[in-house]
């Protein structure tokens, strides 16, 4: 007959708060120490695996179960890895094929410095809504706008903030977006219902961000515009590339195909192939050179360092550093989910939930923690609804409110964490450090503030049909 001690050892339990702090605090300490010493963040996340392994064993899990959780977490995010590599190939061939340089050239020709930031927000919003991908938007229209901004003398972090605000706005509201679909699915509601739930907060946040970028444009754009530098950039691009309106055709085709809900990976890869063809036909590259840019970009030397930095990006090879972090981060997130680390934190936080406002704040925090400790947006969007759904049901709030707050807390903060998949990708593709562009992610801050205000004012906090506000109050009193 088994003793109670044996049974306890075989039955996994939730970790204690001290054990949770050991894993998360240990990881953060490693992350900050390694980055301050110049050691790659990959090793800090990899080391975090073993902190989670140690706690997992202590709470009763077998190593084989923990390893399955780790590989399962990686498997859940492999779509992101494949898309990342495909976008890398797209960026590489679109630069060498003259597509991105042509966008920069014509943009410098027609966009006035004062309205540049607002134009960047709008262009990236439309691109992201049509394609459903913030990564694809940043890697195409985003890079072009960074080049235009550099030519106009706009500070790069400010331009990056406008790019990301537009990219994430469209990513959230596009029915083609994988993050939108995933959040709706994990919250147990229809995709269009999820989008409708996000519209009020997203539109108000967008208008606030648009106003801020308009003011910044007239303040910064007018004062920093250098017509001589603009002419120099246009001349350098014209000398190195065969600039033509025909070079814009691949971007139009890719946007149309994605808008028609064609699968992202084949469409993005098709766009990369078009970049190869355009490199051969319009830029005079040999077939070998053109194909090679899908893996490694040809270094550019226009004589202008800031433009060379933009035009020398892309290629699958440039994404491998990010791929490594995403794989380690997804594995770490899988382990945290398995051993119940975030569940313990949520249980502690839930004790303070007394209203829709505190419920909203808690959800946003949990979403951010998913990015902070899971190092990937997918981890946040998968774990947050799992952790918070029961509380929404108890308080009588519709799952539409859960999905909106999850998206705002998960998607909109994903680019804020330097070691998360979005933070690393956006910093690498735009050439601006995460902490440098962070203060200018105005759409994210505005939308989060608006959804919290909704929570405290009970605006757009939809109730389930079976639960009235009176019943919710009775529940709170009973609790």
Description:
The protein is an all-alpha fold and 479 residues long. The protein has 25 helices and no strands. Helix 6 runs antiparallel to helix 12 (227-240). Residues 1-8 and 466-479 have low confidence and may be disordered.
User: What is the multimeric organization of the chains shown?
Assistant: single chain
Q: Would you list the SSEs in sequence order as H and E?
A: HHHHHHHHHHHHHHHHHHHHHHHHH
Tell me the major beta sheet.
none
Q: How does the overall form come out from the CA principal axes?
A: globular
Task: Enumerate the spans where pLDDT stays under 50 for 5 or more consecutive residues.
Answer: 1-8, 466-479
Compute the number of helices. 25
Distance between the termini: 41 Å
Number of strands: 0
Structural class of the helices, strands and pairings?
mainly alpha
Helix amount, in percent?
over 70%
Mean pLDDT: 85
């Amino acid at each position: 007959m088994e003793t109670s001690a044996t049974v306890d050892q075989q039955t996994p339990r939730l970790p204690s708060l001290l054990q949770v702090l050991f894993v998360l605090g240990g990881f953060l300490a490693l992350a900050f120490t390694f980055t301050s010493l110049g050691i790659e963040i990959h090793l800090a996340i990899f080391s975090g695996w073993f902190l989670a392994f140690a706690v997992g064993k202590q709470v009763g899990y077998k190593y084989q179960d923990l390893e399955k959780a780790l590989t399962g977490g990686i498997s859940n995010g492999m779509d992101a890895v494949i898309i990342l590599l495909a976008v890398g190939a797209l960026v590489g061939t679109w630069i060498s094929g003259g597509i991105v340089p042509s966008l920069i050239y014509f943009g410098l020709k027609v966009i006035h410095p004062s309205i540049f930031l607002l134009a960047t927000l709008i262009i990236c919003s439309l691109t992201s809504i049509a394609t459903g991908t913030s990564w694809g938007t940043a890697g195409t229209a985003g890079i072009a706008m960074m080049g235009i901004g550099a030519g106009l003398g706009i500070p790069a972090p400010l331009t990056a903030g406008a790019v990301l605000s537009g990219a994430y706005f469209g990513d959230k509201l596009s029915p083609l977006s994988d993050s939108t679909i995933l959040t709706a699915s994990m919250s147990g509601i229809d995709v269009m219902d999820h989008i409708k739930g996000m519209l009020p907060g997203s539109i108000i946040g967008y208008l606030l961000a648009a106003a801020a970028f308009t003011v910044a444009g007239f303040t910064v754009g007018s004062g920093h515009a250098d017509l001589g530098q603009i002419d120099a950039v246009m001349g350098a691009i014209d000398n190195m590339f065969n600039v033509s309106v025909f070079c814009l055709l691949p971007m139009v085709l890719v946007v149309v195909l994605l808008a028609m809900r064609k699968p992202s990976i084949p469409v993005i890869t098709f766009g990369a192939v078009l970049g190869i063809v355009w490199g051969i036909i319009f830029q005079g590259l040999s077939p070998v050179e053109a194909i090679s840019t899908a893996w490694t970009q040809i270094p550019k030397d226009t004589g202008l360092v800031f433009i060379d930095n933009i035009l020398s990006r892309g290629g699958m090879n440039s994404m491998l550093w990010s791929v490594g972090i995403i794989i380690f981060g997804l594995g770490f997130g899988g382990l945290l989910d398995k051993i119940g680390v975030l569940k313990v934190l949520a249980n502690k936080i839930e004790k303070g939930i007394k209203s829709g406002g505190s419920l909203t704040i808690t959800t946003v925090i949990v979403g951010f923690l998913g990015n902070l400790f899971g190092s990937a947006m997918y981890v946040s969007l998968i774990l947050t609804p799992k952790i918070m759904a029961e509380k929404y049901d108890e308080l009588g709030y519709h799952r539409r409110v859960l999905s909106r707050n999850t998206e705002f807390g998960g998607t909109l903060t994903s680019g804020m964490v330097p070691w998360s998949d979005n933070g690393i990708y956006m910093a690498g593709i735009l050439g601006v450090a995460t902490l440098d562009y962070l203060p200018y992610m105005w759409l994210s801050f505005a939308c989060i503030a608006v959804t919290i205000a909704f929570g405290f004012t009970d605006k757009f906090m939809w109730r389930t049909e079976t639960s009235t506000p009176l019943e919710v109050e009775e529940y709170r009193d009973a609790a």
